[in-house]
Structure formats: structure tokens, C-alpha cells
Design a protein that fits this description.
The protein is α/β, with parallel strands linked by helices. It folds into 4 domains: about 250 residues, NAD(P)-binding Rossmann-like Domain (Rossmann fold), CATH 3.40.50; about 140 residues, Rossmann fold, CATH 3.40.50.261; about 80 residues, ATP-grasp fold, A domain (Dna Ligase, domain 1); about 110 residues, 2-Layer Sandwich (D-amino Acid Aminotransferase, Chain A, domain 1), CATH 3.30.470.20. It is about 35% helix and about 20% strand. The strands form 6 sheets. It has a 7-stranded mixed beta sheet with strand order 9-8-11-10-12-13-14, sandwiched between helices. Strands 20, 25, 26, 27, 28, 29 and 30 form a 7-stranded antiparallel beta sheet that branches. Strand 18, helix 16 and strand 19 form a beta-alpha-beta unit. The protein is flat and about 95 Å long.
Length: about 725
């Protein structure tokens, strides 16, 4: 047995390189040991050995003291008895024995392990959680990388390392391809992986299970450097470390390696403890979307779209324009394509004159030479027609990509047509997508399209058009990356803001007046106000600033003042101010048992405008996020807001605003002037900078509403919740 110390790799090796090498030993092992190997039908250890025997060309060592051999392999009593050190050990023993096996692997210098065993945190007991913590501690303290527990394992398609417990893996035709598939659920991943039966290729299938050590972030990070993986597809519910996931996704984006994600199990858990409107609006789903937007993730909203979209992105490259061309042999499908393009905001420009001329010379007189183009039922009789028309469309500089609609599967000519289109896809420098519009899923010619290494196959016109939308959005985000510029706040202002917030060390929340003072350090304009402690002071303040005015209770414990009768608007004279003071005092009596009521704030009534909201919260997974959009008292009903990671750039805010339902209101309506969008964008960046700079001090920020006018805008209410 090789000594444990031989795994060190030399003192000159960097920590990152060492970790990548350990992941390589896990995901591309040359020597495997299977602890718990067994000839018993249905056993995990037996299934892994059977799968390896079918595909794997490396060395395999079964380990089980009960047997001298398992199948065609000699079996060893322990890891220490092996003739050479494995790169990875698969562990298929009862949960209570996993810890001792991992410690033995550490003693033998084995750099990685896959734990198939169940009975850990997933069973929801204290005992299971404790067992999982112990194996996590072993991984952390000894440096062994552990996949699992409660995982199905992994398959490296090119090496044939099918270190996986699913018994039907042995029946798969391992088809090399460009998509690496990673996820928590081994069953869902395998469902996608079975596309190899249709000829679709992959580089890897990896299941993390409970992610006690190796998680989705590790796997994405590894596949970024894998030369055989051109796109990464992932299905997951949650991650143990959101910041590490963000770093991995950003690395993939900068490397130009697309990551396609189908996120499942999005909950509202992030909203449960939120005290502000913005905190309640920035739940788990919204925050993940913000993460994906910032890091260039291609998010699909259906399970069925995951593989098709990933294959498309593995072959698409970057678009040369923002438009596509569509060709079909069916007039009805041409209309359908136009509808779907409109749904996804795709541009279908008129073909260039040279394109029209070339198509006119090739098509019958009754053909529709447009975009989408109907090349008619002649395409059934003339098997070269599709290829020749696609080649003509490919030469049109206005089209970044081409979608071919294939409603027919007639005779052997369909196979030759498919082979011709497959060959053509290799010649043209634009992505070529084939939409199989036939309920005969495995009809004549479909096998050629499925197995193609050049064109992308879709079994849904809707999913194809959505993929093109995602493609153009991906390019847009890469362009936005070059425009990233967050607001610059002077260091003296940052220091003053930090010193100010720390002066409230014993307070859970700031009053509105205190919050507005904090906002002032970052150049966030707030309405003028005077804090009063008697009706007489309130009247004097109103007389000083001029009518009409607003009266508001000031108490840190009362976050939503209007909900409890703590706000009176449009007070036009001294009598109204005095009455409002008394009514508010009576309404909120006893509602602030802590520090009590600081007083009643008299504020200048702001002219009517569009009510917006800006807020921020500290997300437990991904750090500071900013929320912005249409606000007011109906903000939680409208829910027309965007969420971004803080700090956020002006370009990101602009794009997010353009996606809101009520966005046209900002351009003016029924004779009203357009709102000052640039001013609002500036305010959003400033609030996001405040949250990012003081993320260790502030839990939530809420500025609602901000009244936006034709020139500028002003915050009329504010809330700050401390950490």
C-alpha cells in the first residue's frame, strides 16, 4: 500500500491546484476501490461493480472482509490491504460505518470518496444529522474530498468510470458529448442522462446527494476547466454555501462556459423573518434570479427544456446579430413560429434582397419567400430542398441563427435529408436548430438529428424559440459586464455612515428620522421634517415649512406606520395639524413598549408623482441584495419589483426596470410628463452601495415610497433594521 504522505503533491503546489487535483481523482479516477462490494443482488456495492465492469478500463478493487472475490475481481479485507492506492473509494456500507471507512481512507492517503450510503441528514433525525456532521468534519480536517452521502454517484462518459449505484447504468450506451450534468437528485439527473439511448452525448453525470463536502459549486468550478465540457447543465434545490456558488458561476461566465440551470424547490423562507416591505419582496426565488442574472446563468423554467437548451448552448457560440431566420415546409408551422417569436420578443427580419433572389430561383412560384419562410410540401418530394434553402438563409448577414421546422417524417428520404442538414450544420458558422414537430418522437430521421454533434435538436417549437431568447440575453449580459460601474461614494462619507449606524448598538431598528440621516451620508435625498413632542410644536413646525404637511409617528418599533393609524396626510392648516397629532398619539399608544414614541414628525407634503420603492436586505446565502420598482401602500399587492445583487450597476438597474410590468408609467401617460428615470437609477445604485458597504451592520433597508417627478425624486419614508 502506498504511504499516506505521498498524497501531498509538493509544497510548491497551490491550494487551488491541489483541490482541483483531488476533484480530478474523484471525477476522473484511474484506480477505484469499492468498500462494501458484494455479490448480493440489489446491493449498492454489487451494482457499482457491475456498472464498472461494463464500461471502465481502469483498475477496480472490491473491499469486503466477507469475500475473497466478487464477480471476476479478487476482493480485499480492507483498504490497507490493497496493492496500490486508489484515486477514489466508493463507500456502500451502513451509515454508522461510513465514518470509520473514511478515516481508514485518510490513513491510506486516498484523496477522494463517494458515499452512496443513506441514513444521514436526509432522514430528519438528530442522529442522522450528527453522522453527517462527523463525515463533514473529516473532509474539512483531513482534506479528503467527499461526494455524498445519499448520492447515486457519478459517471465519467469518456473514461467509462460508472461509479454509480443505479443498476441500469450498465445498459446505457456511453455517448461522449459536450454537456456536463450535475445535480443533487441522482434520479432526476439519470432521467436526463438516459437521452444517450437516443444518441445525445454527455461528458459527465454527477449527483451530490446531501453535499456534505463536494457541492454544486465545486462541480461547476471543476467542469469550467474540463476541455470535454462546453456547457454545464444543473438541477438543484439548494446549496450549502451561496457565496461559493456565486464565485463558481462568475468564473464560468468569465470563461465563456454557459451554465444552464433548472432550479427546483424555490420557497419563501427568505421572507418569513423580514420586517420591511423590501425584505418580504426579496424572497428565495427573487434572490436566485438576481444571482443568475448577475452571473450569466441561463435559467430554464421547465425540466424538459434543460437538456435541449444546454445542448444548444454547447454549440451556439456568440450571436452575430439579434435576429434569427426560420424555415419550414408547412404553412401552418410558419404561422406558429411567428407567434412564438412574438411571445419571446425575437426579431424575424425580412430576408436580404440577395436571399430573396436566391430563394426565388430555387422554390416554386407558390412558395412564401419571407421570414419565416414556407418552402412548401415540395420539401417532401425534393429531399435536397431543405439543405439548399437553409444554406441560402445561412448566407444572410441579418440572421444570427437558423431554426428549421421539421413536421414530416416520410420514408427513407427523411434520413438522407437529415444527414444532409447534419453535414450542412458543420459547414455554416451559425447555430442551426432543428425542431421535430411530430408526435412520432422517434420517427424516420429523428435518430440522425438526436445524435448530431453539430445541430441542436428540439422537440418543442416553444422551447426552441425560448432558447434563442436566452441566447440573446446571454450575449446582452456579457456586454453589460463591460459596462459595470457602481456609484462612487467618498470614503469620508462611508466612514461617517458606519460610525453613525454603530451609535445605535443597542437598537434593533432606527426611527424614520434616524434612517433618513443615514441615507443622507450616501446622497439619498429625503423630505424635510421636524420632530415634535407636543401639538404646539407640531403647529409651529407646520407654520414654518408651509402647508400642506404630513404628520407621522416616530418610533423604532413601529415599522409600518400607516397600518396602525400613525400617518396623517395633506394637513392644510394649524387645526388639522393639532387634531392629527392627537389622533396619532391615541392610535399608537402602547404600540412601542421599548424606547417608546420619540415624537411626531411634521414633514412637507410632497407633490404627487409616481410612487417607487427602493430597499435592500442581507440575504443569508448570497449577501446584500437590493430591491427596486413600483411602491406605495400597495407594493405587496403589485409586487412589480426587481431584485439585484448589491452593489448594482446603473446598466443593470436600467435593464431590470425595463422588464417591469408597469414600466410604461415612467414614460408619461394621459398628458403627464415622463418621470426622471435616471434619477431613480442613481438612487438605486446609492442604496445598493450603502447596503453593500454596511452589510455587517444592516439587515434590511426600506425606502417606500420615493416620489418620482419629471425632475428628480425624493424619499418620504425610510426604515433601517440593524443586524
Amino acid at each position: 500500500m502506498v504511504a499516506a504522505g505521498s498524497n501531498g503533491g509538493g509544497s510548491e503546489m497551490g491550494a487551488v491546484e491541489m483541490q482541483q487535483n483531488k476533484l480530478r481523482s474523484l471525477l476522473d479516477p484511474k484506480v477505484l476501490a469499492i468498500v462494501g462490494a458484494s455479490p448480493k443482488p440489489g446491493s449498492f456495492g454489487g451494482a457499482v461493480l457491475t456498472n464498472l465492469a461494463k464500461h471502465y478500463t481502469g483498475k477496480v478493487f472490491p473491499v469486503n472482509p466477507q469475500y475473497s472475490e466478487v464477480g471476476a475481481y479478487p476482493c480485499y479485507a480492507s483498504l490497507a490491504d490493497l496493492p496500490e492506492r486508489p484515486d477514489c473509494v466508493g463507500i456502500a456500507v451502513p451509515a454508522h460505518r461510513v465514518e470509520s471507512v473514511l478515516l481508514e481512507a485518510v490513513a491510506c492517503g486516498i484523496p477522494s470518496a463517494i458515499v452512496f450510503s443513506s441514513g444521514f441528514a436526509e432522514i430528519g433525525t438528530q442522529e442522522g444529522a450528527a453522522l453527517q456532521r462527523r463525515i463533514s468534519d473529516i473532509a474539512a480536517s483531513h482534506g479528503i474530498r467527499v461526494l455524498g452521502p445519499n448520492c447515486t454517484g457519478m459517471v465519467n462518459v469518456r473514461s467509462g468510470a460508472s461509479c454509480n449505484i443505479l443498476p441500469s447504468v450498465k445498459d446505457l450506451p456511453l455517448v461522449p458529448g459536450d454537456v456536463g450534468l450535475v445535480g443533487q437528485s441522482g434520479a432526476l439527473g439519470y432521467v436526463v442522462f438516459q437521452a444517450m439511448h437516443r444518441g445525445v452525448g454527455f461528458s459527465h453525470l454527477i449527483s451530490t446527494g446531501n453535499s456534505c463536502d463536494v457541492d454544486i459549486a465545486d462541480l461547476i468550478d471543476y467542469l469550467v476547466d474540463d476541455p470535454h465540457t462546453k456547457a454545464i447543465a444543473s438541477i438543484f434545490e439548494s446549496v450549502p454555501d451561496g457565496r461559493r456558488l456565486r464565485a463558481a458561476l462568475e468564473r464560468a461566465f468569465h470563461a465563456g462556459k454557459p451554465v444552464v440551470i433548472y432550479k427546483i424547490g424555490v420557497t419563501a423562507s427568505g421572507q418569513k423573518a423580514a420586517l420591511s416591505h423590501s425584505g418580504m419582496l426579496a424572497g428565495d426565488a427573487a434572490t436566485y434570479r438576481a444571482l443568475f442574472e448577475r452571473t450569466g446563468v441561463i435559467e430554464v423554467d421547465t425540466f424538459e427544456a434543460l437538456l435541449e437548451t444546454a445542448v444548444f448552448f454547447s454549440r451556439a457560440g456568440m450571436p452575430s446579430s439579434s435576429a434569427i431566420g426560420v424555415i419550414s415546409g408547412s404553412g401552418g408551422s410558419v404561422v406558429m413560429a411567428a407567434d412564438k417569436a412574438d411571445k419571446y420578443g425575437l426579431c424575424l427580419p425580412t430576408p436580404a434582397p440577395a436571399t430573396v433572389q436566391a430563394l426565388s430561383a430555387r422554390l416554386p412560384a407558390f412558395a412564401s419567400i419571407a421570414n419565416p419562410a414556407d418552402i412548401t410540401a415540395e420539401s417532401i418530394r425534393d429531399e435536397q430542398l431543405y439543405s439548399e434553402c437553409v444554406r441560402i438563409f445561412a448566407n444572410d448577414p441579418g440572421f444570427a441563427g437558423l431554426a428549421i421546422l421539421m413536421p414530416s417524417a416520410h420514408g427513407e428520404a427523411a434520413v438522407r435529408r437529415a444527414e444532409g442538414l447534419d453535414a450542412l450544420a458543420a459547414e455554416i458558422n451559425k447555430p442551426l436548430s432543428l425542431v421535430w414537430m411530430n408526435e412520432w418522437y422517434e420517427g424516420i430521421g429523428s435518430q440522425v438529428y438526436d445524435a448530431s454533434r453539430r445541430l441542436s435538436m428540439f422537440r418543442s417549437l416553444d422551447r426552441c424559440m425560448h432558447a434563442y431568447q436566452l441566447w440573446f440575453n446571454y450575449a446582452r449580459r456579457r456586454a453589460l459586464l463591460a459596462q459595470q460601474s457602481s456609484v462612487q461614494v467618498a470614503q469620508t462619507a462611508r466612514d461617517a455612515a458606519r460610525q453613525y449606524i454603530r451609535s445605535f448598538a443597542n437598537a434593533r431598528a432606527l426611527t424614520e428620522s434616524e434612517a433618513k440621516k443615514l441615507f443622507g451620508f450616501y446622497g439619498i435625498d429625503c423630505v424635510q421634517e421636524i420632530l415634535c413632542t407636543s401639538p404646539e410644536q407640531a403647529v409651529a413646525a407646520a407654520d414654518e415649512m408651509g402647508y400642506p404637511v404630513v404628520a407621522k409617528v416616530q418610533a423604532a418599533e413601529i415599522q409600518h406606520k400607516s397600518d396602525v393609524g400613525g400617518v396623517k396626510l395633506n394637513l392644510s392648516n394649524a387645526a388639522a395639524v393639532k387634531q392629527a397629532y392627537e389622533q396619532i398619539t391615541a392610535a399608537v399608544k402602547g404600540l412601542a413598549p421599548g424606547s417608546g414614541i420619540a415624537g411626531i414628525s411634521i414633514q412637507k407634503m410632497v407633490p404627487q408623482g409616481i410612487e417607487m420603492i427602493i430597499g435592500a436586505r442581507q440575504d443569508p446565502q448570497f449577501g446584500p441584495v437590493v430591491v427596486f420598482g413600483f411602491g406605495g401602500v400597495q407594493v405587496e399587492v403589485l409586487r412589480d419589483v426587481a431584485v439585484g445583487l448589491a452593489p448594482i450597476s446603473r446598466a443593470e438597474v436600467q435593464h431590470a426596470l425595463d422588464g417591469l410590468r408597469l414600466r410604461p408609467l415612467l414614460d408619461g401617460f394621459r398628458g403627464s410628463a415622463a418621470a426622471d428615470i435616471d434619477h431613480f437609477i442613481e438612487l438605486v445604485t446609492r442604496v445598493s452601495a450603502l447596503m453593500a458597504d454596511l452589510a455587517d451592520e444592516i439587515l434590511e433597508i426600506d425606502i417606500n415610497p420615493i416620489i418620482l417627478h419629471a425632475n428628480g425624486g425624493i424619499a418620504v419614508d425610510g426604515l433601517v433594521i440593524r443586524q
